[in-house]
Amino acid sequence: MSGKDGAVTVPLRDRVVAAQRDQDARTVMRLRLGVGVIGVLLPLALPLGNWMAARLDGRTGADAWPGSMSGAYYTSTRDIFVGALCALGIFLIIYRFNKLNDVMGTVAGCCAVGVALFPTAPPGADATESPVAVLHFVFAALLLISMAVFCLLMYRAPGIKERSYVRRPYLVAGVLILVFVALAIAAAATDIGDDWLITPLYLCEWLSVWSFGFAWTGAALSLAEDIGRLSRTRAVVGAVLKWLRSPGAPLGRGKPPTSEATS
Questions:
Q1: Ramachandran angles phi, psi of 202, nearest 5°
Q2: With b meaning 16 or more CB within 10 Å and e meaning fewer, what string describes 67-88?
Q3: In the chain, which stretches have pLDDT less than 50?
Q4: CA 119, CA 105: separation in Å to the nearest integer?
Q5: What is the reported pTM?
Q6: Which positions ≥6 away from 7 have C-beta within 8 Å?
Q7: Which of 135, 169, 251, 261 suits 20 as a labelling partner, its CA being 20 to 30 A distant?
Q8: Among candidate residues 212, 219, 88, the one with its CA nearest the CA of residue 151
Q9: CA 172, CA 17: separation in Å to the nearest integer?
């Protein structure tokens, strides 16, 4: 269809459909990024928050590392742990890609919320004697397994199969999560590392969540590139860094030399 000046005009219906698709793509990108950011930051935020809280209370912070990520429920970062898992669960539940991924996302999201709402047993207590702790263990195990399955399904998902730079991180993440889960089970069965500062269980959970988080962050950035959002983000970040490095800014190195000083 051509306008009065000979330019091609797009019908209103097609423009509405294109706008909806762009909005859907942006929503998926933000959901992926939300999942990725939580996965990347949470394992470090827990011990760092505990250490900062200990220092503010005048303690050494030697107990900043809980025995497991779930053990953070009984530390100063309980609210961070519960809030992050609930947010992760909501992101996964409302994430939509295809039918199979929708189901796995809902399962993983419900498990994440279950881990947050049903705390593990307190340190030194027998987890098998508490129904709540047993539920926590079930939800935690299902969460890790569903995270691995989710990544492996995304590796084979339509629209991603053709992009090796997106699908390979999903494959690597899925395999690594399964490996770390097996290592955590082996460490728990043999009592290896129970006296370490960072226990094998926490380390395996940390690396599993990191694998999941980095895969989703990469997928979000690739989608941002596809819909033309990454260039805008780069421009904004570049402008902020330029301002920070400018004279008089927080990272500036003083005022530039004047013409009188250089003459």
A1: -65, -40
A2: bbbbbbbbbbbbebbbebbbbb
A3: 1-3, 10-20, 250-251, 253-263
A4: 22
A5: 0.73
A6: none
A7: 169
A8: 212
A9: 35
